[in-house]
């Protein structure tokens, strides 16, 4: 009888493929999304909705207790390969979102001017398109109007880009793109529009009845005398299913996409359905470190050149004192090592056992 199971080469290739997948997964950005302080029920639900947007490269069951400080979260995030924190908090006046880059910063603080939860967005739709398979891959990030409006705008765009893995347009599989995250910058109001959409690709050039036949759920034709009635008039179909398509969303597919009729080199329409959450953000400040450090940019506080020079001088003085303390600490460590080595030498001479003597055996004979 032949040998059952996989061969040695198959097992080795399988192990190497798993190792490559683990390395590729570890190289992708990961995030923690949580609320801190007395945020309230709605803000905590908003944090869960934002965490849903960041799936699957986020901790879906993360629980941060009141006694856990920010330093504790940073210490836990290091071994897990977490690269970003998204922290929501609430004060008496406003709601804030902090976007942090680990381990050295920077930290972007946004004020949440308006927001809508997933349940609020879905309740306004007649037919929402949201299922678990959409969250097995990260969303496609689309940045709009992030032009030459200043270094702080460029830094915002870079931070949002680093939240998600990069995409190679020549090798990407279109079946993995099921969601879209749109971040639009309005230069007049200096606000960001945060929108989350579901992506659906449908073939074009067919009648409403033919589109109904191509769907997985077969239409009810019990009231029809012949199938031609469905193809000709689209009987039994609601007007809401006839979504308008045009040049703005019709494209030629470079590869086949999941769904009946979405073939390669054929015309298909890309439709977006908002699934929430929805936020309107405004940048407040940019800090150098993780939750602390010097303020690099502030939207409401403008400082003069003298104040900026004073801040720079104070920062250089802090760095100089830090380096001086490190040098002094290194000198103290070296001095203590030398003292311990000298103490061991003195102790060895005091016991009578010099260098090169052999321990054990008979004591030396007394002189005659």
From TrEMBL:
Residue ranges constituting the Brix domain according to the UniProt record: 29-292
GO CC term (a single one): nucleolus
Region (Disordered): 331-368
Cell compartment(s), UniProt: Nucleus, Nucleolus
GO molecular function terms attached to this record: rRNA binding
InterPro entries: Brix (IPR007109), PPAN-like (IPR045112)
Biological processes per GO annotation: ribosomal large subunit assembly; rRNA processing
Predominant subcellular localization, coarse grouping: nucleus
Origin superkingdom: Eukaryota
Pfam families reported in the protein's UniProt record: Brix
Full protein name: Peter pan homolog
Organism: Cavia porcellus (Guinea pig)
Lineage of source species: Eukaryota, Metazoa, Chordata, Craniata, Vertebrata
């Amino acid at each position: 009888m032949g040998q059952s199971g996989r061969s040695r080469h198959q097992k080795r290739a399988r192990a190497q493929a798993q190792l490559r997948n683990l390395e590729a997964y570890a190289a992708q950005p990961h995030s923690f999304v949580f609320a801190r302080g007395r945020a309230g029920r709605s803000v905590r639900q908003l944090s869960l909705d934002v965490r849903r947007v960041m799936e699957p490269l986020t901790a879906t069951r993360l629980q941060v207790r009141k006694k856990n400080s920010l330093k504790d979260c940073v210490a836990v995030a290091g071994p897990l390969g977490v690269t970003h924190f998204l922290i929501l908090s609430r004060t008496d006046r406003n709601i804030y979102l902090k976007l942090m880059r680990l381990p050295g910063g920077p930290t972007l603080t946004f004020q949440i001017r308006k927001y809508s939860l997933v349940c609020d967005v879905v309740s306004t739709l007649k037919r929402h398109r949201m299922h678990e398979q959409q969250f097995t891959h990260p969303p496609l990030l689309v940045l709009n109007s992030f032009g030459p409006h200043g270094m702080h705008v460029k830094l915002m765009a870079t931070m949002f880009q680093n939240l998600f893995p990069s995409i190679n347009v020549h090798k990407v599989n279109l079946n993995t793109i099921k969601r879209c995250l749109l971040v639009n910058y309005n230069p007049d109001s200096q606000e960001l529009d945060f929108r989350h959409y579901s992506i659906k690709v449908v073939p074009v050039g067919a009648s409403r009845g033919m589109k109904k036949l191509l769907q997985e759920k077969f239409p009810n034709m019990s009231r029809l005398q012949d199938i031609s009635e469905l193809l000709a008039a689209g009987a039994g179909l609601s007007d809401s299913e006839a979504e308008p398509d045009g040049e703005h969303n019709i494209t030629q597919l470079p590869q086949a996409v999941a769904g009946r009729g979405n073939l390669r080199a054929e015309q298909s329409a890309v439709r977006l359905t908002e699934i929430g959450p929805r936020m309107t953000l405004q940048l407040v400040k940019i800090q150098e470190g993780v939750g602390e450090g010097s303020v690099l940019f502030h939207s409401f506080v403008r400082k003069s050149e003298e104040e900026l020079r004073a801040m720079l001088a104070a920062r250089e003085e802090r760095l100089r004192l830090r380096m001086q303390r490190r040098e002094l600490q290194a000198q103290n460590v070296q001095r203590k090592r030398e003292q311990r080595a000298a103490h061991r030498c003195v102790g060895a001479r005091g016991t009578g056992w010099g260098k090169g003597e052999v321990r054990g055996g008979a004591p030396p004979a007394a002189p005659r």
